[in-house]
Amino acid sequence: xxxxxxxxxxxxxxxxxxxxxxxxxxxxxxxxxxxxxxxxxxxxxxxxxxxxxxxxxxxxxxxxxxxxxxxxxxxxxxxxxxxxxxxxxxxxxxxxxxxxxxxxxxxxxxxxxxxxxxxxxxxxxxxxxxxxxxxxxxxxxxxxxxxxxxxxxxxxxxxxxxxxxxxxxxxxxxxxxxxxxxxxxxxxxxxxxxxxxxxxxxxxxxxxxxxxxxxxxxxxxxxxxxxxxxxx
Length: 232
Description:
Purple Acid Phosphatase, chain A, domain 2, alpha/beta, 5 helices, 16 strands, 31% strand, seven-stranded mixed β-sheet, nine-stranded mixed β-sheet
């Protein structure tokens, strides 16, 4: 799979087709919004019948990236667990996989709105945000001018029409100063990249880096179209 090189705050970064961010100069891998155990949360609430394999699928994708890239640091940008009780619902095999991954490299868990409580001891560091100048990693973008902010939270997706057919794709969003990552979790929903909640963070211009099966494609926000999809 081909990474897509772009610049943010003067740093060369790579958007990966898997929906993760790679910072080669620091050997730092960032993923956003894993929402582990979302399937079991919905099942418990009887809101929706979802197969309860989302955690296994998400961890397998993350583990594959760690195998290939061998990062010095993995940053999980918040909402890594779908709710406060998600860790308690983890099957033994998935818990063991998290312990295996976190033992291999430095893990930093950024607190999100879904998972304000820290994960169990031994699974890595916990922080509200981390400053890896010139980049700062946090869960939710701060309103107003920033430089070098990397965040998640919004689960951005791009909608477009190609040859009369509509498509929706997860995407990164950037204006060269700030960057919003797509959700990495298997069951994470998406918010349209043109939604006012997102657009207000980019007052001038911004691009969407669309995640495809094997590559990432860059489009201006002007090439996208609105839709009614909401994220969860």
